[in-house]
Design brief:
The chain has 171 residues and is an alpha+beta fold. Helices cover 38% and strands 27% of the residues.
Length: 171
């Protein structure tokens, strides 16, 4: 778990990772997004408000970071960013499974996240893990974000497995 003292490191990761995730969005828009949403001050204030940041590591090497919060019975996966060299090797799936386990352990009925409408790689990744399109939300660009949802209720009631890609049990 990242603490207040890690806000600088998380912000540096955002500046390193996020531009490569959104090559279809102009660099000025991306830099503005990072400055207004991923600065150390913003990250610290979100932590103080209860949002949890996790550093994704392999040994001592940072692979990326995750941010989430729980509101009612919904886990909101606010950020999941990995360095390019960490993508495609299972780190993202492991992180996502960990977040789904967290949601299950807290009795959440669903996991929600937002994905830029043009980020097809991320959309396919989440779809493989059982997430479905929920709605569009404006984001100030010509293409809205997609809210995607993983409904955990059937799995919580039955004690059965989540979608096969996640291979987790909620009890």
């Amino acid at each position: 778990k990242a603490g207040l003292g890690d806000a600088e490191a998380v912000s540096r990761m955002a500046y390193d990772i996020i531009p490569g995730v959104y090559p279809h969005i102009g660099s000025e828009v991306i830099q503005n997004y990072i400055a207004t949403n991923q600065s150390p001050e913003i990250i610290r204030s979100r932590m103080e408000a209860g949002q949890v940041y996790l550093l994704v590591r392999s040994g001592c090497k940072n692979l990326g970071y995750v941010a989430y919060y729980i509101e009612g019975d919904v886990l909101h996966l606010d950020k999941l960013y990995l360095y390019p060299q960490s993508r495609g090797a299972g780190a993202g799936s492991l992180v996502l499974r960990t977040m789904i386990e967290k949601a299950c352990s807290k009795g959440c009925s669903s996991v929600l996240l937002d994905v830029h409408g043009r980020n097809q790689r991320a959309r396919r990744f989440y779809e493989r893990h059982g997430f479905v399109y929920d709605r569009e939300i404006p984001n100030g660009t010509d293409v809205p974000d997609w809210t995607m949802r993983l409904d955990l209720r059937p799995h919580l009631r039955s004690g059965g497995l989540l979608p096969s890609a996640t291979r987790q049990t909620c009890r």
